[in-house]
Amino acid sequence: MDPQFAQTLWLTFKLAVSTTVILVTIGLPFAYWLAYTRVRIKPLIEALVSMPMVLPPSVIGYYMLVIYSPRNWFGEWLGRAFDVRLAFSFEGILIASVIFSLPFMVQPLHNGLRALPDSLREASYTLGKSKTITFFWVLLPNIKPSIITAVALTFAHSIGEFGIVLMVGGNMPGETRVASIAIYDEIQALNFEAANQYALILFLISLALLTTIYSVNKKYDTWKMM
Amino acid sequence: MENDVIFIDVEKMMYTAEGSVKLMVQTSIHSGELVALFGQSGAGKTTLLRILAGLLAPDHGSIRFGNTIWFDSEKKINIAPQQRNIGLMFQDFALFPNMTVEQNIQFAQPEKNTIAVTELLTLFGLLEFRERKPNGLSGGQKQRVALARALARKPQLLLLDEPLSALDAEMRHALQDEIARAHLLSGITTMMVSHDLNEVFRLATQVICIENGKIMRSGKPENAFLDNSISGKVQITGQIARIEKQDTIYVVTVISGNNQIIKVIAFENDLENLKIGDRVMVYSKAFNPIISKLG
User: Which of A27, A104, B36, B117 has its C-alpha lying 20 to 30 A from B193's C-alpha?
Assistant: First the structure.
């Protein structure tokens, strides 16, 4: 295999896995909080989480670049304190990808939790179990289909992300050049064979992931009806 | 036993589809009683049960369990449900779908005790279903698991929210015995929400009738429901199911608490305040009822 082709695929995979792992870690507690909180600004928080689904990636990419820029206080502080520059780096596209995929993780989990009858949680409390034990032993095992959906959607979405990576990361081989960018780049260079290879791989991975989601949901639907 | 009496003095606004109703309840419950909370839906029975469980906080008032304060709005005390040592059986049973029957009961134990689990499984006739998930159980079996699970923690107070409403009449009968037996064996103070007169008479040692958020009557079921100002020889309470006009008279069909059908002749002026669904008493004093064994 062409080393550059392999490197690009490896980077794509690394970005998607890292994004998914980070989002599972922060998405689960966040979705739990969102599902049961009674704060007044909940609709605003829900709207903010869903923004990446409606905004063009270029808008979010633009704001990310502004935030990362050493000319602004955050970017400047990052550079001074940690010698880190996020624009046009893997870490930079990773953070952008996490923010951009946030709704794909949080929404299925949130919906899954909301669909559980409140009595499950309450029963666990009246049996003397803490909120943490209830979360891990009662709530999570009963939203398995939502967790699978959230993970698969997040992964598929991170693999296919184009606009925000281009804006924030550019097209640096081994650092920010992921498969979707490579396709664009190869087509610009009229290198259709390479573009075709990338495209086919992305197509097959996404198809496999979505088929998994739908078959899992179908299984649990029939299970629920029983 | 001072330590075992529950004092309740609470107020809470309830917002229902028919508007807001203020729940105002002041009562005390002695240890070992099986108290039925009786009334129409929306009267506040379930709200009161949830307040006792700690799942809802009253607006004002206090709840004391023996010498322990569970709730006091002035002292800002509200003990979490986890610390109240209660067993609550939900209307929808709330069995954990991810756990087997055995695991559901085990989960409720403060410390793992397989012997106690097997005892409960045996007591409720669930041994053969121990490996099954709740989705593979019938309504009656689910109810028994829910009851066993509520008892697994050895609670000081057992709360049952319309425990039998989801079941058909025959199953209900069998499970009423189950609840009576559990109460008898454990001696746990029990409060049960019900709107079935038959259930109240069969199970409860005390009944609290709640209407529109307030206690209207309370006491032993026979005293709370039967009107002692009428010196009838036969007194049956029930609900009007049908009113039919036949020539100049009316035939009123009353279904009694234990689903017996009684037909009563009535004149137009008798029916002035009566309509279908009203709770009524049928009584007679002109003849001597004769008792004889059935079968």
Answer: B117
Question: Which residue in A122, A130, A142 is closest to B55 by CB distance?
Answer: A122
Quickly tell me which residue has 């009662």 as its tokens. Answer: A138
- Cβ neighbors of A4 (< 8 A, separation 6 or more) are A173
Regions of chain A short of the pLDDT cut 70: 1, 221-226
Please report the residues numbered 71 through 130 in chain B whose beta carbons come closer than 8 angstroms to any beta carbon of chain A: 80-88, 90-92, 94, 96-98, 107-108, 110
Q: State whether residue B53 sits within 8 Å of chain A by CB.
A: yes
Residue with tokens 């979707």: A180
The helix or strand, by DSSP H or E, that contains position A149, with its residue range, turns out to be: helix A144-160
Say which amino acid occupies A8: T
Cβ of residue B138 closer than 8 Å to a chain A Cβ: no
Smallest Cα distance from B117 to chain A, Å: 15
Of A120, A126, A129, the CB nearest to B88: A126
The CA-based dihedral angle spanning residues B268, B270, B273, B275, taken in that order and rounded to the nearest 10 degrees: -70
Summarised one tens digit per residue, pLDDT across range A34-61 is: 999 999 999 999 999 999 989 898 898 9
Tokens of B165: 């409403």
Count the residues in chain B.
Answer: 295
pTM as predicted: 0.80
Crossing angle of the two packed helices A144-160 and A192-225, in degrees rounded to 10: 170
CA-to-CA dists, residue B119 to B49, B114, B122, B127, angstroms: 28, 9, 5, 9
Q: Give the tokens for residue B259.
A: 């689903």
CB of A166 within 8 A of CB of A181?
Answer: yes
Q: How far is A129 from chain B (nearest CA, A)?
A: 6
Number of H helices, E strands in chain B: 7, 15
* Stretches in chain B below the pLDDT threshold 50: 1-2
How many angstroms separate the CA atoms of B124 and B176, rounded?
13
B40, B195 contact by CB (below 8 A): yes
* Distance to chain A for B108, nearest Cα, Å: 5
Contact B81 A125 (CB under 8 A): yes
Structure tokens at B229: 């100002």
Are the C-beta atoms of B289 and B234 separated by less than 8 Å? Answer: yes
Which structure tokens are listed for A138? 């009662």
Which residue in A119, A122, A126 has the most chain B C-beta atoms within 10 A of its own C-beta, making it the best mutation to test that interface?
Answer: A126
